[in-house]
Design brief:
single chain; mainly alpha; 2 helices; membrane; SecE_sf; Translocase_SecE/Sec61-g; transport
Length: 65
């Protein structure tokens, strides 16, 4: 149990004194970038899923004649 307490204390110490946090403006810009790429990526996955489902449907329609 003492090992866990030591780990948590050292983790908070690391976060307080050794991590460089972005400014508020940088955090906002990075959030917008992540949101935009998430939307683009989800649209790409949706497009591929749509195309592949149509291909599979056509294939099964073709083999069932």
């Amino acid at each position: 149990m003492a090992g866990i307490v030591t780990y948590v204390k050292e983790s908070f110490e690391e976060l307080k004194n050794h991590v460089s946090w972005p400014t508020w403006a940088e955090a906002q810009n990075l959030t917008v970038i992540v949101a935009v790429f998430s939307i683009i990526f989800s649209l790409a996955i949706w497009g591929v899923d749509t195309v592949l489902s149509k291909v599979v449907t056509l294939y099964f329609d073709w083999i069932n004649g």
